[in-house]
Amino acid sequence: MIKYIGSKRSLVDWIVGVVQRIHAHIPITTVADLFSGSARVAHTLKAHGFYVYANDYASYAYTLAHALVEADRAHYPPERVQPLLETLMHLPLQYGWFTRTYCEEARYFRPENGARIEAIRNAIDGCADPTLKSVLLTSLMLAADKVDSTTGLQMAYLKRWAPRAYQPLRLRYPPLLPGAGKALQEDALELAGALEADLFYLDPPYNQHSYLANYHVWETLVLWDCPETYGVACKRVDVKHRKSPFNARTQARPAMEYLVNQIRAKHLLVSFNDEGYLTREELEAILSEWGYVARFERPYRRYVGALIGIHNPRGEKVGQVSHTRNTEMLFVATKYKSALETLTNPAPSQE
Questions:
Q1: CA distances, 184 to each of 98, 128, 181, 190 (Å)
Q2: What CATH number is given to the structural domain containing 217?
Q3: pLDDT tens, residue by residue, 15-43
């Protein structure tokens, strides 16, 4: 999976473990992930046998979900996809808008990798099968992520090339799974009331940082629209306007209240942390209006960009690290009190 500030890489087993414990008590067939992002949680839930709806308003996130959640490996097996990837890898390099913008004006990729990305992306545009196109784009994103020169965010790039940036870009078959799922690209606030599932997993933006701004290069790579850019980081101009209410302190609570009230399900699972606009008490109050609530917590190491201090656009350090760990919170809300008791009671002794 791509490097992602909202990724639950180290927490996904914990999250899926809670879902499985609920499932053992009250069977769950369908799960809706309304803010799927990198699709890591949705992908893992599908791997555990659930039918997953993975939704996100960003085009790059929809593409990842289309490949990693909706695509059926049986229809797009390695023997079908790998030859296409090999053909793409052998295309002549193309130095155009993408290379000039993200390798010369900004320095996210070495020019030789940028030109290879550009050639591959131009060729993928000719794919008539939308699911196969998402599979190929996902392979390209995963490959580009391994040779970028950032700390995992595209708000800025490193002052000096990261060692991995010198590695040649290499397309690989993405981790497709057998079975069905569904990728959606909707506003979560509008979709929540129209979608039915046994369990909804909510991992909304929790503070002022926009995922679209943090991963604008992936958005451009997918849309391939040569957008107007601004600033040293060459961000897409439209990130100024495509804002989530969850990124605004004054709008976050009303948005969460509205979202939760729209959901029709047996269970809700909400992922949040203590650096967000909403407090533990506020989230518990909102969820208590919906069902029985329990909260679980774990300490978590902050993303690498937060651990190296604050730098200005010239790469000069202008701020110190305030803390290296935060608290990740997982809220369970359920219509069934017995399900909550199953989660909160300690496991019986095996003696």
A1: 27, 19, 10, 12
A2: 3.40.50.150
A3: 999 999 999 999 999 999 999 999 999 99
